[in-house]
Design brief:
Layout: E1 2-9, E2 12-18, H1 36-49, E3 91-92, H2 93-109, H3 111-116, H4 120-137, E4 138-140, E5 143-148, H5 151-154, E6 169-171, E7 175-176, E8 179-180
Antiparallel strand pairs: 1-2, 3-5, 4-5, 5-6, 7-8
Helix pairs in contact: 2-4
Protein name: Glycoside hydrolase family 9
GO molecular function: hydrolase activity, hydrolyzing O-glycosyl compounds
Keywords: Carbohydrate metabolism, Glycosidase, Hydrolase, Polysaccharide degradation
């Protein structure tokens, strides 16, 4: 018996358990029954579908367009960009930063794998897209926007090309419904 853990990102881990014949012949290697390259491509495609703001130049999601370009205007700042949180059409920096960290860590730990499956350029483009957003969120040291849009009002919302009404930006220290951000 053997157990292999292939991690496309630390968030997506696929476990494969089976038997491996012992042989010195490399041509007799067992081919896994799962297409890991396709899984890696689809995981990045998910992030491309979640892009807010101006889409990255090589975004492969043909039905998407630029979205939420006026986010942050109520603060006099450009807070467009980043990724929508779970398809609910709002951005939450805590979950977004964790996802970005996981993708960046996988690029750091497994660059040869990303290159071999032909997804390194797409991975780096996603990291540029999300980190450009994080840079825009930090106006001065210690002053960062935490969330754009109210997640409760956006649950299950889907509008053509994500043309959503303007909703205020929430900053660190503000209470929403009694809960601090």
């Amino acid at each position: 018996m053997f157990m292999v853990s292939l991690t496309t990102t630390p968030v997506l881990t696929v476990m494969l358990v089976g038997e491996v014949p012992v042989t010195d012949d490399p041509s007799a290697a067992v081919k896994p029954p799962f297409n890991y390259a396709e899984a890696m491509q689809k995981s990045l495609y998910f992030y491309e579908a979640q892009q807010s703001g101006r889409l990255s130049p090589n975004n492969r999601v043909t039905w998407r367009g630029d979205a939420c370009l006026t986010d942050g205007q109520d603060l006099g700042r450009d807070l467009s960009g980043g990724w929508f949180d779970a398809g609910d059409h709002w951005t939450a920096n805590l979950t977004m930063s964790w996802a970005a960290l996981c993708l960046a860590t996988s690029a750091d730990f497994y660059p040869k794998v990303w290159k071999r499956v032909g997804q390194m350029d797409e991975l780096l483009e996603e990291l540029v897209h999300v980190n450009d957003y994080f840079v825009r969120c930090v106006r001065e040291l210690g002053d960062a926007a935490e969330a754009v849009r109210d997640g409760d009002s956006m649950k299950g919302a889907f509008l053509n090309n994500c043309l959503l009404p303007r909703i205020p930006v929430y900053k660190k220290g503000v209470k929403i419904g009694g809960d601090p951000i």
